[in-house]
Amino acid sequence: MNIAVCLKQVPDTSEVRINPKTNTLMREGIPSIINPYDVHALEEALTIRDRLGGRVTVLTMGPPQATDSLRKAISYGADHAILLTDRAFAGSDTLATSYILAGALGRLMDREPLDLIFCGKQAIDGDTAQVGPGIASRLGWPLLTYVTKIDGIDPTNQVFQVQRKIEVGREVVRCRLPALVTVVKEINEIRYAPLPDLIRAAHYPVEVWTNADLGLDASQLGLKGSPTWVNKISTPPMREKGEVLAGSDVAPAETARILADKLIPHIVVPNR
Amino acid sequence: MTVQEPTQQQLNQERWRDVPLEFEAIVVGAGPAGLAAAYTLAKGGVKTLLIERGDFPGSKNVMGGILYSYPTHQIIPDFWKEAPLERPIVEQRAWLLAEESVVSIGFKDPGFYEEPYNNFSVFRSRFDRWMANKVVEAGATLITETVVTDFLFDERADRRRVAGVVTNREQGEIRAQVVLICEGANSILTQRLGLQEDLSPGDLAVGVKEVIALPKGAIEDRFNVEKGQGATIELIGESTQGMFGMGWIYTNKDTLSIGVGVMINQLSRSGMNPNTVLEKMKQHPAVRPLLAGGETKEYLAKIIPEGGYHQVPKLYAHGVLICGDAAMLVNGVHREGSNLAMTSGKLAAETVIEAKKKGDFSSVTLKAYHDRLQDSFILKDLKKYENASALLQSNPHFFTLYPKLARYSARELFTVDNVPKKDKQKKIWHEVTSRRGIWNIAGDMYRLWRTLG
Amino acid sequence: MTAKKKKSPKAPPSAFTEKTVPPITDNPERSDTKAHEQIPLESIEAPKNLPAHGIWVYIEQLQGEVAPVSWELMGVGRQLADKLNCPLSGVLLGHDIQPLTELAFQYGADTLYAIDDPMLKPYTNECHSIALVQLCQAHHPEILLIGATTTGRDLSGSVATALRTGLTADCTQLDVDVDNRKLLQTRPAFGGNILATILCRDRWPQMATVRPRVFSKPEKQPERSGAVVWSDLGLDPSKTVMEVVERILDERTEGYLDEADIIVAGGRGLGSKDNFKLVEKLAQAIGGMIGASRPAVESGWAPYSHQVGQTGLTVRPKLYIAAGISGAIQHLVGMQNSDVIVAINKDPDAPIFRVATYGIVGDAATLLPAITQELGARMHGAPLGTERQL
Ligand SMILES: Cc1cc2nc3c(=O)[nH]c(=O)nc-3n(C[C@H](O)[C@H](O)[C@H](O)COP(=O)(O)OP(=O)(O)OC[C@H]3O[C@@H](n4cnc5c(N)ncnc54)[C@H](O)[C@@H]3O)c2cc1C
Ligand SMILES: Cc1cc2nc3c(=O)[nH]c(=O)nc-3n(C[C@H](O)[C@H](O)[C@H](O)COP(=O)(O)OP(=O)(O)OC[C@H]3O[C@@H](n4cnc5c(N)ncnc54)[C@H](O)[C@@H]3O)c2cc1C
Questions:
Q1: Is position A245 within any domain?
Q2: Neighbouring chains of C at 3+ CB pairs within 8 Å?
């Protein structure tokens, strides 16, 4: 089983601090991490490799600093890491990103066949959940999103079975290989790299691919290749100024009566 | 399917797993002290492992501060050409705050805007990260998200030698000839070695800081500096609600760093929380206009060790050296820290390089670190101010009465009201002596002069 | 270059570690089919120069039940269509879906594009994305709206890529620029602290997904009707690559929080699990459901399924009562679209008051019982909920 995992380096939004006074974002010094869902994708890939053999290759598209995330993936146990970096990639939206990643995966497959590609269900910085489906669509591979468990893999017959989350519960899906899977956090527990692996990973020579290596159509990359663009940034609208009802100097029962007067008309209404 | 020949890169890929896990030196903590030490060690050909518990160097130290040019230049020559810096500081002011007013003293020198500069405002999260890259380029190995929890010891009949560290990871032990503790304030490891007793609240200050965003132009106008230049203001008196401590404002590119540091014991006595102290300082009529319209982007609180000379622990033992804040090398009076940290890290590394030549990492050789510090400005300065903290702490009027008196005197002198200056001076003198008695004042001045002068 | 040459399908069942799963079917032909032979997506051209026209809403259905978000989209779709002066259409995919077709018109569609095929039941990404792509290529909608449910997100990413068009996820506001016919897709960014308005240039359809409960459901108009345009799927069932083996539905004893009309929510300010019971009592008295801030959930006062906010649910009830909740931005993004918000907080500067319709500064522990009593009594012991089947 050869598996590729697509990782994204993202700002750690759980460390994003909000200024309590102005409710604005404090962005200074926020660390970059591997998108948390992607870490679970990697973990699942490593577990499968440990069971069935093969290689795990991690890929990320990003600035040179994203090497940190790749080395971390190596310290967890990935076999090989590739950084996709090029000025021309900057500013890509999900359509262009999936084009680049699919192109890189295609190039990787010139070297070694792949049976599975793993992605996280979405990246926490954009929350779009579009890149995994996009890659699958580009490669013409079957897509299974929101996977919570891999029931089994049959490499001989090239089929596997997963459980995936749906709005009202979950479903069991059987699918042929090769396929692309996006995972949720429930799928597994993450391992913690042992010290020797961490130290060795610090010396891992990450393979770097630019567009010169991939030879992708420049008109489909970066800003040029991105149909969506941000037209305007605004702050969330304030609601109309509210009304302050009796404060703490009034008896609770009296406050409750005033409130009830206001609320009854709102809640006693016919079914919509 | 085309099968390609393995490239050189692929061959390297196969070999990286065989990297030997042997190090001559382990540096604990990638703050200014640890980075300076690891850089100097790596440049000196010592196989060095730098261990940081944060996500990246500087991540636990996200706020801005002042970086001193000279010691940094000594470690990385001409660092200003590529390091991420905010503004070179051309003017330093000291403000004596009373309730409504301020007495200001300043020193401005445009020469500070030329190489080799005097100091810079920086964001540690950026600067430390940049410097960590330099350390790695120089050949050291950096690992993050790893906490050193203990030491490995070699026990022999005659002595006990530090022989490596234990981390919080699986298979987490790693050996080296020498360990440099650069852990920062309140160093658990130093205490673990029995080199430092528990610190008391009187040895520690708490610093709180905010970063406030403002347009570049507004900063330059308000601080009266040229484009790209920076200024600092140190505030005493009302800024700390009369407690022992200091406030400060630094200009960054498009933000201001504003903060206060107050001794922990004084805070607990006053029952005040450090945020309140900072909030009040921000509302001071002299401070408020500097910040007007700015938006708070960051907030941070951190411990500053200000025990001074008397609290400096033993700085070496068999196989181990202590640098920076972990060694209490902070000049509370001038509120310098990163420069002492960097210089001490460099001196420790130089000591290790020599020890390596001798093949001896016992305390006999490592003692040279202490001597180097003694000869440097670090221990000289700390010694000079050895009693400052005690004096200032036991004499609250330095932070309460004197700023008020200064304000009163200045106001009298500067108010144009046709009163002859001589009469004014008399009036001032009368006011001052009636508030604290002439002998007391004389005594204060004498003691202050002895300790700081 | 991608799929490996497969062994004979008659090979003995092998290498399954946890569970032995037989091959999907025993059709021998399939083993030679590469996954990507099904639809040559790479060859699909973006409908660049074709005249795109009309607004489409994807009507998500599961076992004959339509996801409420589809009707919410029909409501906003109607407004956009009126502005652009173009038709509003629904897209309905599935099997035995005839009974659902009328609903589309009653909720505002002018036309309905539908494909009824056994292969579309149940939903699979494979068949549904092919179906939707085919319909788009045949009819060139100008705008395509999809609910941001798990299914909607699964589908939209595949379809947008296949059509080489832009897609904006989780929009909270939609509008159109009448002059250049652009869809103005506004969504929160950076944890809801800013709103970004995103446009899609020179590609059609302009695609957006919208989280449930962001827009309100339009009134049903029983008298409305329209034309259904039926199409064929035309796929060979023996060539599918995935198959739903089983579907396990969650047991829900109570309604969905994000469909409740009344929510009474409590936060850390309540101080204890016992005080949180006061919230439950009020909810019970007025036929609402309970909601909670993250700290309340983390303290074990309420289950996670009741957490409101960025990492919980987005709700849009008629009435949201927040007791002891400060109103952090991560909580606000989940409830600020409620029709009426009542905030009870002892801190007059708490940010929750900025979104409150009615604010009460005071102690929740004493106010909640008083309000429970008053509202309970005024509703004559007949909680609204029972009457209105919440
Ligand atoms: C609010 C404030 C403002 C200041 N302003 C200035 C200023 O303007 N100019 C100035 O010169 N000085 C200033 N100082 C002082 C200065 O920050 C310190 O003196 C300096 O950072 C000390 O450097 P250090 O390397 O010794 O320690 P630190 O900077 O504290 O670095 C220690 C590092 O070790 C890591 N670490 C700790 N324990 C472990 C462990 N067990 N295992 C692994 N890693 C560990 C930490 O994560 C950290 O990265 C200020 C201090 C404060 C609090
Ligand atoms: C990435 C991320 C995601 C998050 N997601 C969510 C989310 O989905 N949902 C969520 O809710 N939070 C979320 N949070 C947490 C959020 O930032 C806040 O911490 C949280 O909403 C605060 O909950 P609270 O209002 O209950 O508590 P607090 O902020 O502690 O507020 C308690 C309030 O109660 C008031 N109070 C105290 N005593 C009384 C009394 N006796 N009577 C009346 N009022 C009283 C206080 O004045 C205060 O305003 C998230 C945070 C992050 C970083």
A1: no
A2: A
Domain boundary among B305, B328, B363: B305
Q: How far apart are CA C120 and CA C98, in angstroms?
A: 14
Do C198 and C183 touch, CB atoms closer than 8 A?
Answer: no
Q: CB-based contacts of C31: which residues, under 8 Å, 6+ apart? A: A157, A158, C6, C8, C9
Q: Indicate the residue of A98, A140, A227 with minimum beta-carbon distance to C42.
A: A140
Nearest by CB to B125, which of A22, A24, A28? A28
Query: CA–CA separation, C322 vs C342, rounded Å?
Result: 6
Q: Ligand 1: which residue has its CA nearest to atom 4?
A: B65
CB distance C232 to A159 below 8 Å = no
For residue B421, count other CB atoms closer than 10 A to its CB. Answer: 9
ipTM above 0.90, yes or no: no
Do B40 and B128 reside in the same domain of the chain?
yes
In a domain, A95, yes or no: yes
- Residue at token pair 């250049």: C180
Structure tokens of B224? 């009266």
| Nearest chain B residue (CA) to A17 | B298
- My answer on whether B296 and B157 are in the same domain is no
Q: Which CATH number covers residue B142?
A: 3.50.50.60
Give the length of chain B. 453
Task: Name which residue sits closest to atom 30 of ligand 1, judged by CA.
Answer: B184
- Which residues are within 8 A (CB) of B414 and not within 5 positions of it... i.e. 6 or more apart? none
Per the domain annotation, does B179 fall within a domain? yes
Question: C-alpha angle A148/A151/A152, rounded to 5°?
Answer: 135
The total number of structural domains in chain B stands at: 3
Domains observed in chain C = 34-239 (3.40.50.620), 257-379 (3.40.50.1220)
Tokens of B52: 């940081």
What are chain A's partners, defined as 3 or more CB pairs within 8 angstroms?
B, C
Peptide bond into C141 cis (omega under 30): no
Domain membership of residue B216 as a residue range? 204-305
| Cβ-defined contact of A26 to B297 (cutoff 8 Å) | yes
Tell me the residue range of the domain where A109 lies.
2-220
Non-local CB neighbours of A247 within 8 Å, separated by 6+ positions? C348, C360, C361, C362
Other residues' Cβ atoms within 10 Å of the Cβ of residue B69: 21
- Model pTM above 0.80: no
Of B32, B36, B62, B34, nearest in space to B50 by CA: B34
Question: Angle of helix B438-452 relative to helix B421-436, nearest 10 degrees?
Answer: 90
Classify B380 in phi/psi space as left (phi over 0), alpha (psi -120 to 50) or beta. Answer: alpha
3-state secondary structure A128-152: CCCHHHHHHHHHCCCEEEEEEEEEE
Chain B CB within 8 Å of residue A14 CB: no
Token duo for residue A190: 């993450």
Look up the CATH number of the domain holding residue A192.
Answer: 3.40.50.620
Separation between Cα atoms, residue C279 and residue A243, nearest integer Å? 22
Q: In 3-state terms, what secondary structure has residue C90?
A: strand
Number of domains in chain A: 1
Q: Which residues, listed in sequence order, are joined to residue B143 by a DSSP beta bridge?
A: B51
pLDDT tens track, chain B, 453 positions? 344 454 555 555 556 677 678 899 999 999 999 999 999 999 999 999 999 998 888 877 655 688 988 889 999 999 999 999 999 999 988 888 777 777 777 788 877 888 888 899 998 888 998 999 999 999 999 999 999 999 999 987 667 899 999 999 999 999 999 999 999 887 788 888 887 766 677 777 788 888 888 999 999 999 999 999 999 998 887 777 777 778 899 999 989 999 888 888 877 777 777 788 888 889 888 899 999 988 777 777 777 777 666 677 889 999 999 999 888 877 665 567 888 899 999 999 999 999 999 999 999 999 999 999 888 877 666 666 566 555 555 666 655 665 565 566 556 555 555 566 566 666 665 665 666 555 555 555 555 555 544
DSSP code, position B370: H
